[in-house]
Amino acid sequence: MKIVHVEAIPFAIPYAKPLRFASGEVHTADHVLVRVHTDEGLVGTAEAPPRPYTYGETQASIVAVIDTLFAPRLLGLSALEREVAHERLDRTVGNPTAKAAVDMALWDILGQAAGMPVSGLLGGYTDRMRVSHMVGFAPAGQMVAEAERVRDTYGVTTFKVKVGRRPYTDDVDACRALREALGPGAELYIDGNRGWTAAESARALREMTDLGLLFAEELCPADDVLGRRWLVERCPVPFIADESATSAAEVTREILGGSANAVSVKTARTGFTASQRVLHHCEGLGVPVVMGNQIDGQIGTVCSVAFGAAHRSSARYAGELSNFLGMSDDLLTEPLTIEDGTLRVRTGAGLGIGIDPDKLARYRQDR
Ligand code: MUC
Ligand code: MG
User: Fold this and answer.
1) How far is the CA of 218 from the centre of ligand 2 (A)?
2) Which residues are in the Mandelate racemase/muconate lactonizing enzyme C-terminal domain (predicted)?
3) Which pLDDT value is given to residue 113?
């Protein structure tokens, strides 16, 4: 199982429905397809989504770091030597989605070699997850229409509402309109992507106390250390750390520092190996976990559901698994489908996915 070749292929697929949030917006899935080849002919596949406003990575930087630094360090290693692979990748700081894609491609190889699904190898807790849909910035009426469409079409009843606009009352009004339209049975939570100050966040939370929110996520920056701690002390629901807690060490810092009391796990940035470290760490600390979405395409979503469904603690809440619905197309030979508000884990060996060669030829940016 020696690694003989690592590919980093930039591709771009437009969004039919762009997503807007406080730290940025996505119009095109300008991701990188990562393929790790072994001497036995196995090919592990994953995708890396550049999020410059979150991690500083770009499509070009992901391709460059894989081609020039990661691939040469991986060649000749066995896919079983994941810990050595990570030691070598970690000689380079940052670049979380590039590292995560390599990690998940290695797990795909291991699963294929064993003839077993990765989700089973990770923990095999359940075969599906409830889906949470992210509602991006728009006038309140459009946000309601979007949530109703996703509920009526896919049976989804959990929604994460993007907040963090100014004035904050626009978001309070949108959340209220969503609650009124969706009724008391829907689960609603909010994600500010650091858009508000601690004081704005506190005011907004106070004005939404009757809306029955499930969680609040990254309402203000974690770098406003005392302000954020002050806010979390007053927050009536678990406060999720997302972009402020992207490793087990950052989770320790944020939780013990009082800057969060729940954590978003995203396989797009911690792969399977480090996501398990984060997850087990959260279990040890006794804080809840939500499977987040890095605005993944279908390949990334297959990875998120494989991981989320594999463990009790990551399968507990609905996972954010529907961002791919906004894309105009994707690369998988068998597209994902959300039914009855749930997404199933792929049952084939490894990640159980195939890449459509015609689609890849159409969307790749390097030829
Ligand atoms: C999220 O949960 O924040 C938007 C920015 C990012 O880094 O992830 C997405 C979704
Ligand atoms: Mg978030």
Assistant:
1) 6
2) 140-238
3) 98
To 10 degrees, the CA torsion angle through 339, 163, 279, 318?
Answer: -20
Average pLDDT over residues 280-309: 98
Domains of the chain in sequence order: 3-115+356-363 (3.30.390.10), 120-344 (3.20.20.120)
Mark residue 232 as left, alpha or beta (left: phi above 0; alpha: psi -120 to 50; beta: remaining): alpha
246 within ligand 1 shell (Cβ under 6 A): no
pLDDT at 250: 97
In this predicted complex, what is the ipTM?
0.98
- CB 189, CB 213: distance < 8 Å: yes
Q: Which mutation among 266, 293, 321 tests ligand 1's pocket best, with the greatest number of atoms within 8 A of CB?
A: 293
Q: How far apart are CA 26 and CA 366, in angstroms?
A: 21
147, two tokens: 């949530």
Q: How many residues does the chain have?
A: 367
Return the bridge partners of 251, or none: none
Q: Is 341 helix (H, G, I), strand (E, B) or coil?
A: coil
DSSP for 203-248 reads HHHHHTGGG--S-EE--S-TTSHHHHHHHHHH-SS-EEESTT--SH
* Beta pairing class for 262-265 and 216-217: unpaired
Q: Taking the complete model, does pTM exceed 0.90, yes or no?
A: yes
Task: Say how many Å lie between the CA of residue 19 and the centre of ligand 2.
Answer: 13
Helix ranges restricted to H, 271-335: 273-285, 298-308, 312-315
**From CA 328, how far away is CA 196, in angstroms rounded?**
32
Which of 160, 187, 266, 298 is catalytic? The answer is: 266
- The answer, yes or no, to whether the previous bond of 139 is cis (omega within 30 of 0) is no
Is omega for the bond preceding 167 within 30 degrees of 0, making it cis?
yes
Ligand 1 site-directed mutation target among 55, 190, 191, most atoms within 8 Å of CB:
191
Q: Which phi and psi (to 5°) does residue 130 adopt?
A: -70, 145
Å from CA of 22 to ligand 1 middle: 9
